[in-house]
Each structure stands twice: as C-alpha cells, then as structure tokens.
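queue> pop job 88
queue> type: inverse folding (structure -> sequence)
queue> payload:
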C-alpha cells in the first residue's frame, strides 16, 4: 500500500506567481534614494502604460512624503493599523474607505477633474458612502420614504439636454437621510431600503416624487475616520442635501446632490461636496388639499423642490474634458 501524502501544514501557503526575475541587475538598496530608484526601474516592466504611469507617480509622491516628513517607524505602523481598521470597518452596506476619501477631499478632487463644468449643465458632486444598489423602483409621484421619516417634501422637474431638449426615459436614482440625519444603512435592523428610490422620466422628460425634507447630519464618527477628524480638529457635519444619480444613453452620467440654502454648514461641508450652483431654494406650501393631492397621507404643509436637471451629451462631455485637461497641463507647465 502506498503511503498517504503528507498534508501541507501551511494553511495559506504562498506560491510563486510564475513571473521570472528581470534580465537586469539592480544595485543593492544601501541608500534611501536607491530604494526609490530600484522600484521605479522595476515599474518599467509594467505592460500597461497607464498603470505604469500611475504607479510611478504614486511611488514618487509617496516616497517623497516619507522623505520630507522623516516619518518614524512607529508613525508608519500607526498609519498601517489605521488603514487596516478602515478596511475592517467596511461591510457590504458601509464604506469607510469612501468616507476616508471624502474627508480628505480626494473624492471631490477626482470628481472635479473628471467632470469639468459645461455651461448650462448641472454640476456633479460626490457620491458619498451611502449609495446602495437595492433602491426600489417607484412610479411618478411615488414616495422614496416610508411614512414618519420626516417633514413632507415634493421634488419635481424636467431632465433636459444642454440644448434644452427634454430627455424621456432617463433613470433617476435618489436617496437621502431621514429626519434624524441617518441613512437606512445605518440602522441595525434594516430589512429593506428606505429614503431611496429609482424612477424614470416621462415622455416629456418630467419627473416628480415624494421625499422628506433633508437635514444636516454628522458623517459616521464611530469608526477610524471619525477618530481622525477629532484628531485633526475638524467637524464631521454635512449640510442638508438630496442625492441624485441620473443616467441616459448618449449622455454623461450625472452624480450630484442638491443643497437647500440657509444651512450653516454649506461652506464647510465635511466632504467638500457643495458647489454654488447646486444650492437651491425650497418653497413652503401651506395647502392641505394640495398636499393630499400630491399623495401625502396626513396632508398639511410640505416643502416643494423644483429643479431641472441638465445632462451633457457624450460628445460635449468629451470635448470639455479634453479642453480642461489641456488647460491643466498648461497651468502645470507654467
């Protein structure tokens, strides 16, 4: 009888990835600058030119940061532990890494670079960490919020192209916090989506739905990002806002938010999402009959948000991005 093969005691055994060593030698990294130089030379082996470009720039800036700050071993280990905790805090419905990107202004910066403004078009804003894929479909005039989630608000408008043409059958995803300043994903007993929904514009590009009046709220402070903000002396509040994501074939996808005016945190938004032309006015409608006509069960008064969304055709978006990139390159070279 043949002997049973011995089981490998290593649970997560590391294996070679099949890539051979380069056909050149590198100097031993006996000096700090040689570590950077060797790594940059190894990146020259990267087949994808874009990945090569991005990674070489990342290494240059990261190594420059380490050199300029003379960061200590203890500080770097704390940084690694912080990022580890950020990852461990993430769940299928909580995105702590997006939150970190948001509070460091990276999300807003990436958004601004990739979505340069086009005259007359609705500007973009940050996605935020609370978007989910499970928003329910609602009909025109339907509600994204269950009863008791906040003060009534009706949202209506038209989705148009930059030339003023209405856009039918555009998909609108919209979500918001409730009157306590919490998103549905922040509740432990969440068993269905709430204060979020998906609808389509009608044949004339119009849309309308029931929601609740948004309120200012703190971003999650119970995780590593919240601790970071306390450490650096920054508040964790976002001004009141309503999220939109609008898509239609042939147009640039729009991710944005609308910010009712008068909020004290508009200019110091914790995630740098507010742009001047995204600040809107809410109308107060004190008409019980009108409230019931619009589908609000208890009637009474409600807020009215009127806003026309303007999408950018793909060719215009491409031209705007190319021009914006050229101008940025010109400014960088000056």
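queue> result:
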């Amino acid at each position: 009888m043949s002997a049973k093969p011995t089981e490998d005691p290593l649970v997560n055994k590391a294996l070679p990835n099949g890539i051979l060593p380069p056909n050149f030698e590198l100097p031993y990294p006996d000096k700090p600058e040689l570590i950077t130089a060797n790594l940059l030379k190894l990146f020259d082996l990267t087949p994808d030119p874009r990945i090569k470009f991005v990674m070489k720039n990342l290494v240059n800036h990261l190594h420059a940061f380490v050199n300029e700050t003379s960061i200590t071993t203890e500080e770097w280990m704390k940084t690694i532990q912080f990022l580890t905790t950020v990852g461990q805090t993430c769940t299928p419905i909580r995105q702590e890494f997006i939150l970190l990107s948001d509070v460091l202004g990276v999300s807003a910066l990436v958004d601004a670079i990739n979505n340069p403004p086009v005259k007359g078009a609705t500007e973009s804003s940050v996605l935020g960490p609370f978007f989910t894929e499970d928003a329910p479909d609602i009909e025109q005039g339907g509600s994204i919020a269950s009863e008791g989630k906040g003060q009534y608000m009706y949202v209506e408008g038209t989705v148009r192209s930059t030339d003023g043409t209405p856009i039918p059958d555009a998909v609108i995803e919209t979500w918001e916090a409730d009157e306590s300043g919490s998103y549905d994903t922040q509740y432990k007993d969440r068993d269905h989506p709430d204060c979020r929904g998906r609808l389509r514009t009608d044949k004339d590009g119009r849309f309308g739905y029931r929601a609740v009046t948004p309120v200012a709220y703190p971003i999650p402070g119970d995780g590593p990002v919240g601790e970071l903000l306390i450490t650096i002396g920054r508040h964790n509040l976002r001004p009141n806002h309503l999220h939109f994501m609008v898509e239609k074939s042939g147009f640039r996808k729009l991710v944005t938010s609308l910010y009712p005016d008068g909020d004290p945190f508009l200019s110091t938004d914790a995630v740098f999402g507010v742009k001047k032309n995204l600040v809107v006015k809410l109308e107060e409608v004190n008409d019980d009959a009108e409230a019931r006509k619009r589908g609000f069960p208890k009637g009474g008064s409600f807020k009215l948000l009127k806003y026309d969304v303007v999408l950018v055709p793909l060719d215009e978006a491409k031209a705007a991005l190319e021009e914006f990139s050229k101008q940025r390159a010109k400014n960088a070279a000056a």
